[in-house]
Each structure stands twice: as C-alpha cells, then as structure tokens.
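Extended Data, panel c. Modelled sequence:
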Amino acid sequence: MAKEIYLTNNLSNKREQFVPMDENNVRMYVCGPTVYNDPHIGNARPLVIFDILYKVLKNKFKSVNYVRNITDVDDKIINFAKENNVSIKELTDKIIKSFAEDCKFLKCEEPNYQPKATQHIDLMIEMTKTLISKGFAYENEKHVYFEVKKFEDYGKLSNKKLDELIAGSRIEVSNNKKNSEDFVLWKPSNEEEPGWDSPWGRGRPGWHLECSAMSKKFLGDEFDIHGGGIDLIFPHHENEIAQSRCANSTKTFANYWVHNAFLTMSNEKMAKSQGNIIKIKDFREGNISGQVIRFALMSAHYKQPLDWNDKLLKDCQNTLDKWYKVYDQNFETVNITAEIISPLYEDLNTPGYIANLHKLYDKAVNGSDDNKKIFISACKFVGFLTEAKEEWVSYKKKNVSLSEKEIEEKIDERNKARAEKNYQKADEIRNELLDKGVLIEDKDGKTVWKFK
C-alpha cells in the first residue's frame, strides 16, 4: 500500500491524513512577501518548508499547482518608499529581484505561479462588489468594510471566540466602521499614493483581499492547502476565510491550513521591533552556501520554534562538508524508497529525514556505488548536494584569509620549528592556520593542507 501523507491541520488543530480534492490536480497556496524591504532569515523558513512540502506532494501526486503571491501594494510599501525617498516602482522592483535571488540561493524551486497583487486589482474589485451585494460588506466614506458578525464561523481557524480575538489583537480604529472588528476591503488613495478607479472612488485594496482574489483565479473557490507563518493565522488567514467563503458561497476555502513556527535569537522572536533581524541577503553576499542555511532551517520540525545561532550554522556546514566527500556529480539520481522518505510524509518531519541521511551516509562512505547513488539522490531530493564539489570548496577558499603562497610559507616555518624540536612553535603555527580556515596533516613524511 502506498505511503500516505499526514499534516497538522490548524483548522481542526489535529494531525490528519492529507486527502486532496482531486488527486490529478493538487492545489496549494502560500502567502509570499510584502516587498518593501529585503526578506529576513525568519521569512526564509516558510520558503524552505513549503518548498519541501511541494517536493513531497509532487513525489506522490501526478500534478501539483503551487501558488505564492507577491504583495506589491501595501501601506508598508508606501511608507517605506516615502521615508527613503524612492519611487514605489523602484522599491518593489528592487525587492522582488532580491527575493528571487534569495529563493535561488536557498535552493527553492519556483512555484507554478507567482502573481503580483497590482496585476489583479480588477478581481479584488469584483469580489468586493460581490460581498456588498450579498450583504457581507458595506461602504462608508469611500471605504468598504467586511462586517465580521455576518460570518458565523469567524474565529474557527484561530480557535477563539470573536470577543477573545478583539481583546487580544490590535484592531484598526476607524470612525467609518460599524463595529471595531470589521476589516477593510477597499480604502481611498490620495494623489501621492497608488490607486485604481472603483465604484467607491480611486483607491486600493486592503491587504487580506488580494490572497482571496488570486487564489480564486489560480486554484478555484476551494483548494487543498493554504500555508504561511504562524503569525498570519490572525487576522490575515481568518479574514481570508471569511471573505472568500462569503463571496464564493462555499462551505470551505482551503481544507488544510499549515503554519510554520517562528525563528528565535536567544529565545526571542526574530522581528524588526526586536532589532534582531538578519537578512537572507546578508548570507547570500557572504561566504556561505545557501545549502547551509537550508539545512539549518530544516534542523527543527516546522511546528517548533528554531533558535538561530552560529553553532547551528557551523554544525550544518560541517555535516555538509562531510557529505560532500562522497558526492560524485557523475552519478545519476535514483528513486528513493518509501522507507527513506517516510519522515517527510509524517507531517514534514525534517529532523527525521536528516537522521535517515546520516544513516545513508554511513552506508555510502565505504560502500558500493549503489549506496552512494541512494545517498546522493536522497540528499538532492531535499535540496542538498546541489552544487558542484568545486563550487562547494570555493566557499571555503573565500573564508581563508591567507594566499596559497602564505600558507606554504607558514608550513615551511612549521617544518623548520619541528626540525629544531620547537614543538610549541609548531603547534602555534598549526593552530594559527586552523583559525584561518586551513587544516594541515602530516602524511608519509610530508605536510599537506586543505581548506577546513
């Protein structure tokens, strides 16, 4: 019997077997970036986690449609552009390009579709008109709001009653609302802000509306999986469910809601307000492979917080370095067994899959070519061993602060110290080279060196 996929569904708060609406057309929507600033390493976690889920789904099902949106109209974008004295187009074009480079750096596959909000304003206007006509939304002073009390299932995703959600969240205050919990579908724009003509005047959509409109276009009124960070459960995903189900007159919107936990630094949530942001771009422009970052993001289960630190990165670097010793890029990939991949079918248990990779490495290191092929294929399945050996070694070279000539001179100096039985000085030179990324070994009467 074929292995089944299980996921933790936040809509039911239970681990459930994944059963798609149509096995020949599995559909997944994941919230993408708001392009006002370079994505940080916390934003990288959903990129990698849902890339792995995409791979797992494709491994089992014939066709998978993966959609990840780009929010290129938002108050954050408007404010950031104004504060930095750049045009909105200049800003969004730059960040979209940087985001694409981040995804490539992290070894993520491209989704089937990456729609931009600004390209689908007409669909958002139509959905807003539909919500008004059905009595779920109202206009006031050129604003359009969704009336939350009209949707009886509001709060089901976050598993809270409406009063609890209002009390525990920052709700936008406005005299234009009937009720404090109502959220905006459309707002007016002044002359300096981006805007589109609508029945309610020139304006722009609210943040929540875009995902409902674009998921409908690319995946239909109902689809299988909706993903994103845990911070999106309320209000963003709760509001998406409300407006989509009411506009489309459906019993469901997405059947499975999957959310990854936060990244932390020193056990504090990574956030701009905490001042502990590390951008993906910082690693991309440094001397580290994206595989190391990807490995680190997979080292904890996606539902658990992941503490980001230098030791984690070093451990991941060392493991990949070890694995590259058996990598042969001339080997063709082979199909990996259900037993190997099974942890990923069990709610994307990436630590369990990494444990399997360690076992496969032990078989491959002194084993047959078949064992090496299985190990390499299992690594490639999740985005490891994707760079040529020479490229991997090049990262080490970048981290070495000495030229090859200087290294050879240091080795000569050490050999002279050893000949004079000055072993303390010889050890000091060895440790100096090691600190600078060079490992030396004495073999058959000769001293050889390599990048650490």
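The chain has a mean pLDDT of 92. This feature is highlighted in the accompanying rendering.
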